[in-house]
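Weekly structure sync, notes
Attendees: PL (lead), two postdocs, one rotation student
Agenda item 3: pending single-chain targets
PL asked that the sequence for the first pending target be pasted directly into the notes so everyone works from the same version. It is reproduced below exactly as submitted, 467 residues in total.
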Amino acid sequence: MQYDVIVIGSGPGGYVAAIRSAQLGLKTACIEKYATYGGTCLNVGCIPSKALLDSSEHYYNAAHAFKTHGINLDNLSLDMAQMMKRKTEVVAKNTAGISFLFKKNKIDGYQGIGSFKDKNTISIKKPDGTTEEITGKNIIIATGSKPSGLPFIQIDKKRIITSTEALTLQEVPKHLVLIGGGVIGLELGSVYARLGAKVSVIEFMDSIIPTMDRGLGKELQKVLQKQGMEFYLGHKVTGANLKGKEVTVTFDAPNGDKKELKGDYCLVAVGRIAYTDGLGLDKIGLTVEERGRKVTVNDHLETSVKGVYAIGDVVKGAMLAHKAEDEGTFVAEVIAGQKPHINYNLIPGVVYTWPEVAAVGQTEEQLKASNIKYKTGSFPFRASGRAVASGDQDGFVKVLADATSDEILGVHIIGPRAADMIAEAVVAMEFRASAEDISRMSHAHPTYTEAFREACLAATDNRPIHI
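Predicted structure, written out during the meeting:
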């Protein structure tokens, strides 16, 4: 078969690239090695983790918050099997949706492992062992990423696990030792903490979510500690050993002291690494970066081989589903002869704990490092009428604006529905709004988004109304 576009991988980047290519009139194929479309995000990442986050939040509120609302429950219990069953059903609905969209857009789907025979020919090794070849004028590599590990820890996928196995546990751990205080680890750690597990977080850096604004990490740690999680920051893990059903994790304190924690499960969540194994990149003259295995691309996301593109987790930048989606659309439009645009500075990052954490633009640390003069405005959710009414008073909105022009340079939120609130900040910054612009726009009352307006008032001339 001859195609205009062949996409290898059907995650958020791959399936969006395929759909957009088909919309633009390009004959398109998509290759997926697993039985369902959607990649890591839909199958073992974003979607199942959010399903468990929602379920565990309901359980936690039923156990800890319902009484304050006048709702009394007797004999509250957890049906772990049903919770996992619901999660599986959520995943199935989403992956089935991708299949429907492929049929709707007349995209040919192939199941198997795709690899380059040459720059226009892809060999597909199917599950039954047979091989099929298809050719395309343009190839898009969208193979995503996989959990990375530590070389001195053997992951057995039963007691010493990655995020993938953490989504399918059939019991609540008594003590979950979590290696890594980043987004993935904290989300999954909070799931099991809400369900009653003791969760201990060991993080090499001196802050959780270390790539985000420091104030967000500090506040999130305080809230998660209230929920029962404990933290060992600035500690270096040296090993994890399994004996029976007990995992012993050893680590060094900042002062050099040797420590250990014993738990029934250990979750290794130290990041992800680009998945480029088996692609046969060497056959077309491509190599990957030694660290991270990422593919090098130009401003059009094209590799050094003409007509071969790469997007998402296999190229530079944040490993985010929505970043991959934007790049999928971008490449399809480049191939079609259009001139698309992505502003990488305005791709938001989100942590789906509760409260949620969301940010876009520059952090204070980045602005200071770049010697950019800025002003800041902050507003706490404890002063928000809507947050008080819902009982979600932890957190704040922080706005960073240029000291001279008042243009918004960064927005950092920890609080209720931060993941949704950040979209207003992205829109504002895409149109280069000033803090005063937002402060003069009407926001419905009572809503959480009023906190963004108040933070902008604070940044404009220090005149928030409600604090």
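Discussion points:
- The domain at 355-461 is CATH 3.30.390.30 (Enolase-like; domain 1).
- The chain is about 30% helix and 25% strand.
Action: rotation student to compare against the earlier draft before next sync.
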